[in-house]
Amino acid sequence: MSIKKIKENIYFVGAIDRDRKLFDELIPLPDGTSYNSYLIKGSEKIALLDSVDPTMYDTLTDNLKEAGAGRIDYIISHHAEQDHSGSLGELVRAYPQSVIVTNEKCKSFLMDLLSIPEEKFLIIKDRDTISLGDKTLQFIFTPWVHWPETMSTYLKEDKILFSCDFFGSHYATDELFVRDENKIYRAAKRYYAEIMMPFRTSIIKNLDIIKDLDIDIIAPSHGQLYDKPAFIIDAYKDWSSERVKNEVIIPYISMHGSTEKIVEYFSESLIEKGLTVRIFHLTDSDIGELAMALVDAAAVVIATPTVLTGPHPNIIYAAYLVKALRPKLKFISIIGSYGWGGRTVDILADMVSSLKAEIIEPVIIKGYPKEADFKMLDELAGKISNKYKEIAIED
Ligand code: FEO
Question: Residue 393: its pLDDT value, please?
Answer without folding.
Answer: 55
